[in-house]
Each structure stands twice: as structure tokens, then as C-alpha cells.
Amino acid sequence: MSKWSTRQEIFATIPLRSYMTFCLGVAFTFATVGVVDNLFDLEHTDGRHLILTVLTTSCFSVLWVLVVHRRSPKLLIPLAVVQVLWLVAWTRLFPAPHHILSASEWRTQVAFHGFLIIVFVLLSYGWFGTFFRIEGRRYFAAHTEIELASRIQVQLVPPVEMQTRDFEIYGVSIPSGIVGGDLIDAVEMNGMVCTYLADVAGHGVAAGVLMSMVKTAVRMHLMTNTETGKGLLEAVNNILTPLTEESAYATFAYVLIKPGVPLTYSLAGHSPIFHLRRESGTVVRHSVDNLPVAMFPNVSYATSTIDAQPGDLLAIVTDGLTEIADSNNIELGDLYIEDALMRYASRPLDEIAAEIFKTTSAVGKPQDDQTLLLLRWRDSSETTHQA
């Protein structure tokens, strides 16, 4: 976002009281300009012209502020036309007087205009000072809340590291701003493990709040459901839908690991799972067509299975890792993830993740949260050797 767009965004969101205070500061600033303009032509002015000059400069300056900062480009030309017409009409409706001032009258007029300039400057300073004081309090209050939200997110979305006799999991999430909306987690219960990744629409505080709701809903279901993992997406969707706005939703991907059976997985509007088969050295993609969670109530979600062998590697990513674009606005895509899985399959999972993030950082600055979840089945011979 450009600096100009950022300023427009700021003025579009400040409270009415602050905006009115700012406009008064602008009005008195340009009222000073009107007094100075009148001072330079004392022989062709009087009290009426002084008042008209001050009102014209101050009122039109406020109108220009309203048009520019409220993103109304269609009104720029009409406002310019109105101002020109008013200046033309003014000279005809109120012809300028012609008089010769004595030395004492000159001094009196200069002193009076100087007094007005001082008054308007002080009023301008006072109103701008009030504006900055109000917005300063509001800014620091909001900044404190954002910092608190960021700390809470660090606690809610720490890096995921888990190792068992049969598999290892590693996940990391890097927010694009102070507060992100991506989520990774791994929950162990009743001899099973559910590891998942969620990508909340948007980013910032609102996305962070929804992200925390997703994690709470998942944990609540996994800890209370007697048949662990069954109906996970349905439960999360039914919990979140009544609590969120229509525009708020999250894509979701999870893998449920049960000893001795194929993996159960499902995707809710999320990109496919990358599966590197160690035996063939190729990458396949697993996908299930489902709606994201928190969009519509009473949605049924399909699941599927993955037959994973020792040494196989799974990767789940958010679109922040695939839609990142370079300076020419060309997106990176996802083929590099397949390449990284094949090239670095034997390395520790954190090193594979580092290579993937190294590729994205070389492309450009991320505009969305970047999250990666890796899951690898351990070779029994390697496990025995390590033991």
C-alpha cells in the first residue's frame, strides 16, 4: 500500500470528533492565509472584503480536505469549478473599493491584520494540538491492544515439534504483520495424534481473533469426542458459524494418525497435501473438495485416507507460501515445494522448512501469513538405530 493510500485509510477511519477537530485546524490555518492576502491589498479592501476573503480561504480549504481524504476523486473537478465561479462572482457582486490610506490608517490596518494573524495561528495551533492529543491517545491504546494480541498469538501458535517411534512433525507459522491469522497445532490423545493447519481469511487482529476461536473449537472437540477425530470439521464449522460474520471463514487441513491404519485426512477449502513417496521419489497431491469452515451451517465434510510408508513425507502449506509475488507481480507458485521435498527429503524437518522459507524470502516481501506443516514417517531401522 502506498503512503498516499495509507493516509487516506487513516482519515477514513478516524472518529467524527477527531475529523471535525482536524478540519477546524485546517480552517484557521487558511484563515491566516486569507488575512495575509488581504493585508497585501489594503487600498482595495474593507471589513466586508476581509471577512469574505477569510471565509473563502477557510471554507474551501476544508472542502478540499473532505474531498481528497474521503476518496472522492469525482468531486475534484466540480469543486475546482465552483471555487473559480465563486471567485468570479465575488468580484462582481462585491466590487473592490478604491481609497487612499493615510500613514496612521496604514499602521492601524497593519496592526489589526497582525492581531488577526496571531489569533488565527493560535487557534490553528490549538485545534491541531487537540487533534493530535485525541488521536495520540487512541493510537497508543490501539497499539497496546495490538501488541497484546501479538503476544497472545505467539502463545497460541508456537512452532510445532513432535516425535514418536513412528513419525515426526514439524510446523512453523510466520505472520505477515504484527498479528497473523494462520494456525498450526498437533494434539495427542488416546494413543492418536491430530495435526492440523488453518488459514483464516485476511490478516491482522480480526483474523487473529478468529484463529484463536478455531484452535479452541478444535481442542474442545478433540478432548471431548469419544471417537477421536470423527466429525472434526463439522464440529468446528457448527461452533464457529453462529459466532462469525458472513465474510469471516477459514480454510482447514488436518491429518489424523492412528496406529496400524492408513492416515485419515480432510481439507476444507484448502490447497492439496503434498506427499513425497520415498520409494518412488515422486510427489503426489491429495485433495478433498469441501467448503471452508465458518461459512454455512450444517455442512457435511468428506474425508479420505493416505497410505503412507516409512520415509514418506507430507507437507501442508498456506497460500502465503505459494502466492507470494516478485517485483513484476509474478507469483512463485507451488512447484518449488515439490522440488524442496525431493531434494531435501533426508534432512531434518526444520532444515527442509528453512529451505522453503529461504526460497520465498528471495522472491519478495510476504503479503500474507506463511505457514508450513511437515509430517514424516520414520523408518523402523532408523528408529531402532537411534534407540
Q: Estimate the strand proportion.
A: 15-25%
Low-confidence stretches: 383-387
Tertiary shape: elongated
Assign the CATH topology of the largest domain.
Phosphatase 2c, domain 1
**Global structural class:** alpha+beta
Terminal CA distance: 53 Å
The CATH superfamily of the largest domain turns out to be PPM-type phosphatase domain
CATH class of the largest domain equals: Alpha Beta
CATH architecture of the largest domain: 4-Layer Sandwich
Mean pLDDT: 84
Taking Cα atoms only, what radius of gyration do you get, to the nearest Å? 32 Å
Number of strands: 11
Q: Strands of the largest sheet, in order across it?
A: 1-2-11-10-7-8
Query: DSSP helix count?
Result: 10
Helix content: 40-55%
Overall tally of domains? 2
Main sheet characteristics? 6 strands, antiparallel
Give me the strand/helix succession: HHHHHEEEEHHEEEEEEHHEH
Could you characterize what this model shows?
The chain is elongated, with a radius of gyration of 32 Å. The chain has 2 domains: 3-149, no CATH class; 158-386, Phosphatase 2c, domain 1. A hairpin with a 3-residue loop joins strand 1 and strand 2. The chain has 10 helices and 11 strands. It starts with a helix and ends with a helix. Mean pLDDT is 84; it is low at 383-387. It is of the alpha+beta class and 387 residues long. Helix 2 (16-39) packs antiparallel against helix 5 (103-156). It has helices spanning 3-13, 16-39, 47-69, 76-93, 103-156, 205-224, 232-240, 335-343, 349-363, 380-386; strands at 160-163, 167-174, 182-189, 192-200, 250-257, 263-268, 273-277, 282-286, 304-306, 313-317, 370-377. Strands 1-2-11-10-7-8 form a 6-stranded antiparallel β-sheet, covered by helices on one side.
